[in-house]
Amino acid sequence: MSAPSLNKTINFPENMRSAHELILMAKNGKKGNHAGQSYALPAFNVTTYDGVQAACEAFETLGSSGVLAFSNSALKHFGHGDAILGLETIHEIVKFRAKKSSVQIATHLDHGDNIGEHGRKVIRGAIEMFTSVMADNSTDHANKCATSLKVNMDATREVVELAHPKGVSVEGELGVLAGVEDEDTHSEISTYTDPIELKDFLTNTGVLLLAPTIGTMHGPNKGKPGDKVKLNIELAHECLKIANEINNEIIFVAHGASTLYPQVVEYAIKNLNTLGLNNDLETWKNFVGTDWDQIKGLIGAGFCKINTDTENRQTYLSALIGAIAQTSSKVDIRYYEKTTYKALVDSYIQKLIMAGNYGVWHEPKINVSEFKFNLNV
After folding, report:
1. Buried b (16+ CB within 10 A) or exposed e, 190-200
2. Interatomic CA distance for residues 161 and 109, integer angstroms
3. Domains defined along the chain, listed by start
4. Looking at the DSSP assignment, which residues form a beta bridge with residue 171?
5. What sign for the dihedral angle of Cα 89, 90, 95, 100?
6. Is the pTM of this model over 0.85?
7. 199: Cβ–Cβ under 8 A, 6 or more apart, which residues?
8. What is the C-alpha separation between 163 and 145, in angstroms, rounded?
């Protein structure tokens, strides 16, 4: 029996849609009433209330489609240790914020686990409150190995059967991505996606969003300093051909795809020197991101959802270091929050422009070609 199709007749809260609907528009190059070149939706992993507001401001500034992604650890943060409370809290906040928005927004559970008891509970809660969920059943963390194809397919198919009838899109993962994203998402191993397994996985699970592993990596250290991350673009195109033969509405997702902005690193290092915090200089110098030219190559291979987290954390921290270096005695938290908030907004705007995700719902409110992302301003 085939997996249930995604129910596209569901009405989500005002100005909210499934992630798949928004990303499919990007794959088809749809902006307004026109269709052109494919673009991508950066899915911003959000961990603070300011992050939600900053991302929404960036979406509205550019007329972009928006994807707000929340990991299990982020939900625990919002819920003061209780992921379900965090889920309920952030659902209400985003629903309220979207109602006042000029664009369309999706909420996405990142790296949901349908194998462990806690993970299953969170996924089921997210199906009721979010517009998209990830069922990442690719890794057996206890034994530090990939799960079997059957276990991965069965666990993912179960989520599709629960979510698709409710209009909630499902993202699966095939292969294992190495690196550390946060306390709940990490792996010491990495495996490329097997094209033969890919066909079975897509056919049997019915997912419309899939994260294949083609060389990206979670975390701030994606390689050796001075080296460029090399992605397997050839494998990406091979996977796309297989996916399109099954269903051309299947879209790929790039995890571990944060870039590294040199000006952010330079700004942090300059201000760390000012503060005399020289012990942290090497850490900043050793950060390695994924080269954007490589990511652009993935967009042409059907990767129209680009997960983005580390670069925004770096931007926030760099801006905070700068604010403290300029004045560390201002007894007004709002001063520092305004600084980090503006940095986040500009970081989000930068990535949206790079991905071509602007002018989708209305004309940008700024001149895109003249935008400059600079923490010194």
Report:
1. bbebbeeebee
2. 17
3. 19-368 (3.20.20.70)
4. 134, 209
5. positive
6. yes
7. 242, 246
8. 27
